[in-house]
């Protein structure tokens, strides 16, 4: 569950702190809410599903008696055929992602370094995204920091609106 986000993280990933119940888990949302997947390129979905499933298997392995992961796993086995199929594969130990691609509606696909700092108790993590300096991704991240959560129409939407109004859009 996400406890806190800075404004740039919210602009990049949407508000992650407002969910309740099982939906507080990003992994639960990944397998049950198509909106969660819309933030990532389709070609990355399969590997992300495998990573999340292996992550849950690792959490369960650290403390099989912990009721929280057990509840999440049981709910996902019931609610997501995809998760159930991956769970049956018993995949563990997938390497952590060092880079993550995020599909943002305003700035497009951006590739970021992903650093996960884990607390000593293994239950709290700080996720830090950074862009490689001097890259297009760094420029897009800087743009997102300025525009924040604002959404802008795509070029196609501008053309459609202009055509409906009977005006040619300016270049």
Can you list the strand order of the major beta sheet? 1-2-3
Give the terminus-to-terminus CA distance.
44 Å
Question: Helix and strand succession?
Answer: HHHHHHEEEHH
Task: Compute the average pLDDT.
Answer: 86
Biggest β-sheet, characterized? 3 strands, antiparallel
C-alpha Rg (nearest Å): 19 Å
Low-confidence stretches: none
In short:
With 171 residues, the protein is of the alpha+beta class.
Description:
By secondary structure, the chain is α+β, with helices and mostly antiparallel strands. It is built from 8 helices and 3 strands, in the order ααααααβββαα. The protein has a 3-stranded antiparallel β-sheet with strand order 1-2-3. α4 crosses α6 (81-88) and α5 crosses α6. The N and C termini lie far apart (44 Å).
Secondary structure layout plus pairing:
Elements: H1 7-13, H2 26-32, H3 34-37, H4 45-62, H5 67-79, H6 81-88, E1 99-104, E2 108-118, E3 125-130, H7 136-147, H8 155-165
Antiparallel strand pairs: 1-2, 2-3
Helix pairs in contact: 4-6, 5-6
């Amino acid at each position: 569950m996400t406890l806190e986000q800075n404004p740039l993280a919210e602009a990049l990933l949407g508000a992650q702190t407002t969910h309740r119940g099982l939906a507080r888990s990003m992994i639960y949302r990944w397998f049950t809410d198509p909106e969660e997947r819309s933030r990532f390129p389709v070609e990355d979905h399969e590997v992300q599903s495998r990573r999340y499933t292996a992550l849950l298997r690792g959490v369960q392995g650290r403390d099989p008696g912990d009721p929280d992961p057990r509840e999440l796993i049981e709910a996902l086995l019931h609610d997501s055929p995809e998760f159930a199929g991956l769970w049956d594969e018993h995949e563990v130990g997938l390497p952590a992602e060092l880079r993550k691609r995020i599909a943002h509606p305003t700035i497009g696909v951006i590739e970021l370094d992903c650093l996960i700092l884990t607390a000593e108790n293994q239950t709290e993590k700080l996720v830090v995204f950074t862009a490689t300096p001097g890259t297009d991704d760094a420029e897009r991240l800087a743009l997102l920091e300025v525009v924040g959560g604002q959404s802008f129409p795509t070029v196609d939407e501008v053309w459609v609106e202009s055509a409906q109004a009977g005006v040619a859009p300016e270049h």
